[in-house]
User: What shape does this take?
Amino acid sequence: MDQTSQVTGRPYSEIKKDGYIIREFSHLSSPFEFVWHRDKEDRIVEALHETDWKFQLDNEVPQEINRIFIPKETYHRLIKGTGNLKVKIWQKE
Assistant: This one.
């Protein structure tokens, strides 16, 4: 299923595939849209291209987005870079 940011009200669009999600964040989004939040499941996030966007876990310094494990219920956020960001996400349901 393809969900656009206009439909969801979130700063990304996504396509759900068998076992993973492809999510794209627009360079047109405001940096203020990328807020601290938690997810209800463990996730692995992998950038699908080189990017200067950053990822930050609670109480840690921002890091490059290569392949990141995010434990469930852990606060985290994206830090906007240049261009769009496309990631692949695996999550435990």
